[in-house]
Design brief:
Elements: E1 3-7, E2 10-13, E3 18-25, E4 33-39, E5 46-52, E6 57-59, E7 67-72, E8 77-82, E9 91-97, E10 112-113, E11 117-122
Parallel strand pairs: 2-11
Antiparallel strand pairs: 1-3, 3-8, 4-5, 4-9, 5-6, 7-8, 9-10, 9-11
Length: 123
């Protein structure tokens, strides 16, 4: 069974940086989409960044220019580099991935989810 495990969350001051990692086990699809989502208390979950098997990326407007999603296929790991963090970035961050027939990020739907890692940004 596919398992996604996030790490790298923590507490930082505004303007700081964090790098989140998502280790994917038994995830061997060659065409897929993986993404990072976040959910703050009392708010709906939102998609932050996506990357597909071709390396194409998408970002929500609020993180463009500050966050970078990347993947290391050899390590089966997804990353989210977060720079210039703001208090409004505070949330639980989740890694997600698709399975066939969802082979790209167009649907916005994901089949596998991690347990999340907390990011707290103080002003």
């Amino acid at each position: 069974q596919v398992q996604l495990v996030e790490s790298g969350g923590g507490s930082v001051q505004a303007g700081g940086s964090l790098r989140l990692s998502c280790a994917a086990s038994r995830y061997t699809y060659t065409r897929y989409c993986m993404g990072w989502f976040r959910q703050a208390p009392g708010k709906q979950r939102e998609g932050v960044a996506y990357i597909d098997s071709a390396g194409s990326t998408r970002y929500t407007d609020s993180v463009k220019g500050r966050f970078t999603i990347s993947q290391d296929n050899a390590k089966s790991t997804l990353y989210l580099q977060m720079n210039s963090l703001k208090p409004e970035d505070t949330a639980m961050y989740y890694c997600a991935a698709t399975r066939p027939p969802r082979s790209n990020c167009n649907s916005g739907l994901f089949d596998y989810w991690g347990q999340g890692t907390q990011v707290t940004v103080s002003s």
